[in-house]
Records
---
Amino acid sequence: MAELTLSSLAQNLVGSSAVDNQRRAKQLASQGVEIYDLGIGEPDGDSPEVVKQAAIAAINRGESHYVDPRGLEALREKIADFEWRCHGLKIDPLQIVVTVGSLGALSLAFRTLLDANDEVLILEPFWGPYANMIKLFGAKPVVIPAVEVDGALLPDFVALENSITERTKLVILNSPNNPSGKVWSLSELQKLGELCEQHNIWIVSDEVYSELVYDPIKHVSVATLSPAIAARTIVATSVSKSFAMTGWRLGYCIASPEVAVVLAKINHYTVRCAATVSQWAALAAFDHFEDLLSEMRARYAHRCALVERLFSRYPDFQFIKPEGTFYAFVKVPHYIDDVEVFVKRLLEEKGVVVSAGKAYGQSSRRFIRLSFATNDLVIEGGITRIGELANQIKH
Ligand SMILES: Cc1ncc(COP(=O)(O)O)c(C=O)c1O
């Protein structure tokens, strides 16, 4: 009998090193090792009480049915209002498609735009899953190294333009950026927009950290630059990080009305609709967004300041204050030869989980990413141990 095979795209997928790290941390914890987990990519607290109550009420009302593949109309109205008030993005609810998290929104965008062998520009440092997601759609990721300026990794527009070919279909923009915490400035966004107009390229703008910015930094959506740029942009975002709702799996795409029709069709054929109860829960989050977001920002601003204070004790590490997100992206001292070995030793010898920079592209191979979506004790214990191991290596 002929052998059963998986698709060649599936066979070539690479697993996530972050998942391996977390598994090993769990194993160590079960052996009684104290773990300082600075690897987590999600808010540490529960979802807000109003969100939980709205979901319970929805269940009790019998909201257990399919809804329109575009998402609940009431939710899309709330999102349109939120996008206008928070980001100045003027959209009609018909331009919104509610998805299964921003991963679902990104997948929909890629499925809608990409043909086999199309090229997708990804700027370093980039969120790890992008490259594999692109491959899963049969397209080719083209990675653009960053330029390093005083320990900060910035977009290299010359390298970006030089990488454009006739097969280039889209560029992924991620601001605020995971892992670097960088928020793109208006002039950087304009440069990107101009390049995309000049070369007729789509923009998929992953704005999942849009609400997590630190004063006086403001998040600007590339879709607000001009109607022409909005027409070539699909925004992919979610309530995961802003409202501590990762497990509800609720996100959305924003696109032109014509593109939104296609996104909704593909949503229908892949998941039918995002979970109905989660949609009602998200609606409650948008109803209370001002209070929920200001409380959340204050919490992370406090933690960010704590991370900054702790790293000031270890000046061999190059720490640049993140402008957004809950990640610190820190350049390790020159006497640490191999960052991946350092990250492994941190886990095995000190119980500290961080991510090695290589996962985000070659330009960041001298960096480690720490998440401060955790409590002060874990942050303090973790960073102190990072400093200790570095000192042991130095002396
Ligand atoms: C840059 C980036 N995009 C997308 C996601 C996925 O988020 P969601 O939970 O909305 O699917 C994450 C999650 O870590 C992320 O960091």
Note: Residues 41, 101-103, 127, 174, 178, 206, 208, 238, 240, 246, 251 surround pyridoxal-5'-phosphate (CB under 6 Å).
---
Amino acid sequence: MEPTTELFKVSGTSREVRQPRSAPKNIAVKCPECKEIIFEREYKKNLKVCPKCHYHFRLRARERIELLTDPGSFVELARDLVSSDPLRFASESQVYAEKVVQERQKAGMNDAVIIGHATIEGEPLALGVMDFQFIGGSMGSVVGEKLTRAIELAIEQHIPLLIVSASGGARMQEGLYSLMQMAKTSAALAKLSELGLPYFSLLTNPTTGGVTASFSMLGDVILAEPGGLICFAGPRVIEQFMHEKLPEGAASAEFLVEHGMVDLITPRATLRQTLAQLLHFHRKATSQCIVRERILTIHGEQVLNNRSFIAA
Ligand SMILES: [Zn+2]
């Protein structure tokens, strides 16, 4: 069959497939790091962080949005986009189109990212949050398109951008179309950067592959949650290829901070506060620029047409 030229489509219904109600509720979870048993109530109260060793469990995209944004401020965009399976991909064990439908049911979302706009402590921003639960947070054409729309929204509205990454990399079942998303998102971010609008990138466990090789590492400020695996290729793959042992924790967020690839490790409990602070700084810088622009007009000097705060 001929491959289609459409990479994504709008799903027939505007609603996402809901997760079955009968899903059993865990009353306790075991920390994979220190083996502590954490009861549901404490687990939730502690924002899914182990109280003993501070291991950060994965958050779903909607949980992350709820944690970071002002209550009721998030407006979701492009919720209906679904993959159109551009390669008509089928392996011996699976037909991709069928897998996507199953995953949509299992994860309760249409693809591996949620985008929209919201406020954090009253500061507006465009937002893209990835969800590892949907095919390992893999980046196919829908993820690339939605993130690009989030970037374009930031450009249009002249607001900062936040992308929260959680990904195993490019989506193999969409082959080259997946890899193209690296260039597409990076090109959109370059436009954002030209306008002097800030991009905050938050890396969560894990952020790997094509996502690390594109938008995740292009942030003006790159934050990471403690203990996260952040790399292009995993340490085991590198060791097999190089025939050399890597230093302890070579792909950890902490290692990347020490080596200048990440700016700051931010524990989940202070994440919202840190982001709010960054957004406040940005607004102050921008308003100072506008003030300067007005003064120049009042004094009859050449009027600045460009509102870019870089000029300040
Ligand atoms: Zn623990």
Note: The longest strand covers residues 199-208.
---
Amino acid sequence: MTDVIKNGTIVGNTSNNIRIASQRRSLVQGLQQELDILDQKHLLRQRRTVETPSAPSLRADGRDLLAFCSNDYLGLAAHPKLAEALQEGASLYGVGSGASHLISGHSRAHAVLEERLAEFVSPYIENARALYFCTGYMANLAVITALAINKDTTVFSEALNHASLIDGARLSRAAVQVFPHRDYTALERMLQQCKTKHRVVVTDSVFSMDGNIAELAPLLAICEQYDAWLIVDDAHGFGVLGEHGRGVLEHLQISSPNLVYMGTLGKAAGVGGAFVAAHSTVIEWLVQRARAYIYTTAAAPALAHALLTSIDIISGEEGQQRRAHLQKLIALFRNGLHLQVWQGMPSDTAIQPVVIGNNADMLRVAGNLMDQGLWVGAIRPPTVPVGTARLRATLSAAHTEVQVLQLVQAINRLDQMSYVAQCFAEVA
Ligand SMILES: Cc1ncc(COP(=O)(O)O)c(C=O)c1O
């Protein structure tokens, strides 16, 4: 054993250092083994580096592609007016916020945006106030943990909820019960039997991997009957659904004092961040109590400033035209798809999944589309249940009809080839 001396001080000895180094190596080896297992199960994910603005025609990893995988449903992410507004925001407010909202990071840009968002959803939320968050993930953590006041709370979580809602429920330390997808009778039974003092029901509005919409009217009625909050995550509805783009509340014409609404601003709104809108007392509670709001640096004020232009576009004539075009594309995709082996899903939204089944087949199909220059999301477990790996095609108002037809024809062709291969396999 030899002492290791640095600047005249003994900082360790060689046998200790060798032991620590081999422990480190075995920790790394352990992770590598886990990665190898993921690889064997075809579950390794891969990032592609996009070199151009987010738009249907883009360049990624040096290749020109036609993309059907962003959530930029209205095609605003590369809108010149938004880029201009962002530059204006940076010259007015600088780049960083410098601190969390409750210290000195709450800028006038955040305050003005919150007022605008509250006004936007006010037809559906009484005494509405809004709170801007850095991301939808954080907004969901914040709102669930703050409303699940203590251990005397049960969170009822929809089976197909987004990961951020699931994580929020876990983090809350409340009891968590999962109710089956859109089965509100089962939820009602659970609420009847619930013994805790507080109840919080949580659901996506548009299910992010299926594209279908929750039936919020009966769900709200049940929540009111059992004195439960209803947190609605409208990540895929805000800006897209409803005549004025006010989201699922406008689409379904619903409103309730039990409702807590979360909309994201990095999808249809084209920028980034999210907001929670609810009765002003609920929002004040979040400001005081939501740790994911309090203990983080506020988003860049310039983003909030740019979002004002985004809301103007969404709520104005241009927004209506973009939504109308998107609806046309959705119909074109759905009517054009003729599948024999794979399965489309009953979705009327911009999210159009095609279920392939096992991971390896799905990767092959996504790879084949990629070879044709078509980039479609390849979704595998744990994001979706085992055996339901799927293509998640997302449509945007920035797509043309010709581009959507190109995708539909490519999927139909691959499905047909798969059908023929299956027939041969059965005969052989
Ligand atoms: C349903 C749902 N909720 C929340 C989020 C998180 O939003 P953000 O991307 O702003 O963090 C997403 C994003 O993918 C989502 O699909």
Note: The pocket of pyridoxal-5'-phosphate is lined by residues 135-137, 140, 162, 164, 204, 208, 233, 235, 264, 266, 274 (CB under 6 Å).
---
Amino acid sequence: MFSLLFLALVGSAIAGPVDFEEDLKHNVDLERLQKDLKALDERLQNSADVDAEIELLKAAYSKTVLESPAPLNGSIIKDEDINEINEKDGEEKDLFEGDVLLTNEQLALIETLHKSNRSRRQALKDAGYSWGTVKPVIPYSYSAGYPKSTRGPTITDAMKFWEKNTCVRFKEVTSGYRVEVRESAGCSSYVGKINDRKGTQALNLGEGCMSVGTICHELSHTFGFFHVQSRFDRDSYVDIDFNNILTDDKHNFDLEGEDKTLLRDIPYEFGSNMHYYHKDFAKDESRPAIYAKPAYKVYQEGMMGRVPTFYDILGVNKHFNCAANCKSSVSCSNGGVQDVNNCSKCLCPFGWAGDKCDQRPAGTKKMLVTLETQTKRIHLPAGTKSTQYKIDYYLLQAPPGKKVQMTPEVLGTRWSNSCDPMGLEVKFLKDARPSGIQVCDWRVQQPTITSETNEMLVAAYSLGDQFAAEITFKAVN
Ligand SMILES: *[C@@H]1O[C@H](CO)[C@@H](O)[C@H](O)[C@H]1NC(C)=O
Ligand SMILES: *[C@@H]1O[C@H](CO)[C@@H](O)[C@H](O)[C@H]1NC(C)=O
Ligand SMILES: *[C@@H]1O[C@H](CO)[C@@H](O)[C@H](O)[C@H]1NC(C)=O
Ligand SMILES: [Zn+2]
């Protein structure tokens, strides 16, 4: 078993002077990991009432699948997400939670926690897993032969995303303990700073991993975070259809025990950059593996945020105690928080802007919503491909006391797990902090969304491909 698996890994590590397998040899006891994962798989199944709820959700879902959909001006090229890239290459078999590498120490910790039914933590904060706090610096380098000239710019854009929004800094170095960006078939990272040997810890970023959102996700693991759908409270938000997951993949949905304080008051977020897409690890990809519970069914299509959300950012700032960089305080509107990089202004939730988060983003188009049904076509023409999103904001405003009811229809798009390249983000809650609902798949009928206040923000985004959608809306009581 061990040697077969090991050979498979060596075989999949194709190009360049790769020492991915070396790293696995040093850090991961594959035999033990396989045994541990198998034991977890055996434990993971649903209770009868969860199965019954899934049957209902499955029936409801199948009604939303459109017959012979024809995308308008769109291509049907499918972009893959992290889990699909890793799955295709067989890499995920030896990874914990799909794209997570574990050290022997972490493995032992998880084994112990499982045996004692205690909690694994969403963010590991023990000494030895941290890059420091308040002003954490993560040293990194590229492995010899890594195609830095082509991939480096996207990687540094992802690092800049975290630097702009948190107190984390990245420093390219040539010696000392560091994260080493390596060529690989897939995308994976250790959780936190390993620190159990000298040298480097791998951050595997293959060609398929080249989007800011994907790299930000892997960097979250490097900071010390696991996935959202492994939170102890996930069973209150989603049902996992274990009948639609291959036995070998079930451990990807292993659950943490309860340890509330370590979630740092960050709520469960479907649109988090650290949540799986609903069809990740599905045996039958025409059906989800993760169903949003009935109360949250508007989120069914919108799992896995394209980039880290406001709450993902707050989580990282709490993890590293970034707030300690500010001595003064500042007041912010609409859920904004003090910007740890400039204490005299606020960091705003998506859809708000200005030093105090009391303005809408520049260029937001306002649309009056009346009792009469209106339809608006939103079109982002093809443009220069970029690592940064072009975003058009539409603010739908109903008269005071009314609500906005809106149904989106995606007309033309590439489609991708995670709505990464393009789509709509719809903010409909009174609380501005949670991420909106992402909408991007033209093959399904999207849910009707009703705002909690008289305003709804619809943001159309793209990395350069053409995107077209139609929104139909009216004011309701
Ligand atoms: C579709 O493509 C045609 C021809 O390029 C163009 O005229 C039209 O505006 C496009 N429609 C949308 C919705 O993008
Ligand atoms: C852990 O939980 C399982 C299932 O609830 C139970 O059967 C087992 O006895 C528990 N183990 C310990 C050590 O408490
Ligand atoms: C901090 O933000 C304020 C308000 O926008 C701005 O005037 C100031 O230049 C910023 N300071 C730095 C160091 O960027
Ligand atoms: Zn991951």
Note: Residues 148-165 form the longest helix (18 residues).
